[in-house]
Amino acid sequence: MKKRAPKPWFRPSRGCWYITLDGRQHNLGACEESEAWVRADALKRQRPNVSPEAVVALIDAYLDWCQKHRAAETYRWYLDRLQSFAKTIEADLTVSDLKPFHVQKWVDTHDGWSKGSRRNAIAAVKRVFHWAEEQGYIDRSPIAHLKKPQCGKKEVVVPAEHYQRMLDLTHDEPFRDLLTVTWETGCRPQESLRVEARHVDLTHQRWLIPTTPGKPDNRVVYMTDAAMQIVRRLVLRHPTGKLFRNTDGKPWTTDAVNCRFHRFVPKIGVRYSLYAIRHTWITRMLEAGVDSLTVAILAGHKDPSMLAKHYAHLSLNPKRLLDEARKAAG
User: Fold this and answer.
1) According to the per-residue pLDDT averaged within each range, which of 42-51, 167-176, 215-224, 248-257 is highest?
2) Which residues in the chain are classed under CATH 1.10.150?
3) Contact 286, 311 (CB under 8 A)
4) Side-chain half-sphere of 175: how many Cα atoms within 13 Å?
5) Cβ(14)–Cβ(63) under 8 Å?
6) Pick the CATH number of 9-135 from 2.20.140, 3.40.50, 1.10.150, 1.20.1530
7) Full-model pTM
8) Beta-carbon neighbour count of residue 181 at 10 Å?
9) Which CATH class is domain 160-320?
């Protein structure tokens, strides 16, 4: 029987075309099918000169590893950013030919990205090559010295009156539930949008969300009585699947949540986010006198020094510092 000639095939999870040559998959990039055939033909003509160290091949290897060893949200986080980067480079660009300017040019094409988004984008690409170095695929990362923008200070605090105003402007129960639970628990957006009934421990009023597939690590989120009341109702309503869903019964997405916050701007004058509410929760805990170690544990910080780095703005509050000094003096 005559052996079939290899032809391009599409991988939906990556949004890219591939071709399998000599038992190895080659990423042809995110393009139209006609362009995938052109790239496949060019790749066939280059055999066996196509380097197995192509950057896109290394990205694919990392994503395969990430999908197996990291949480689904983490995998999608890297997938979105690495897919975007891979579209800007040649399919046969090798690791030895990759330079920091390849990454910098990609980031610079996104004028609308915030400083934090640019930092995350560069960090995602650097992570691939750091991982490849750890795994022994390469001797040294070609972008090890590429600098990331400084992380912006988390100075957005939601005043209690603005929070109440957002609740008043929210006429549907699903989004009000999401706002309230975030305000009460300080959970991360990726935690509230991910939590399911199977993660809820009603006896101890907490969530136990696995952080790494196959490992016993859990992110523990403790609920106040107000949050507990909402979550108990949602567990009964949604015994399987995501707890927090919109009015259509579909799980909330990041974009949908951001759109809801955008609607508040004409009424409040400020655009907030779930992260701003989480930041406000941490600020409230510290200002209430809860020790930083306890706050760090409740917030899910593995390193308590994160609070000192990102919440130093509290030191600018002279009234609070004076109160603390008086307490210390007895």
Assistant:
1) 167-176
2) 9-135
3) yes
4) 22
5) yes
6) 1.10.150
7) 0.63
8) 28
9) mainly alpha
CA–CA distance, 178 with 90 (Å, rounded to integer): 43
Please write the tens of the pLDDT for every residue from 274-322: 999 999 999 898 888 888 888 888 888 876 666 666 665 555 566 666 6
pLDDT at position 49: 42
For 253-262, what is the mean pLDDT?
A: 92
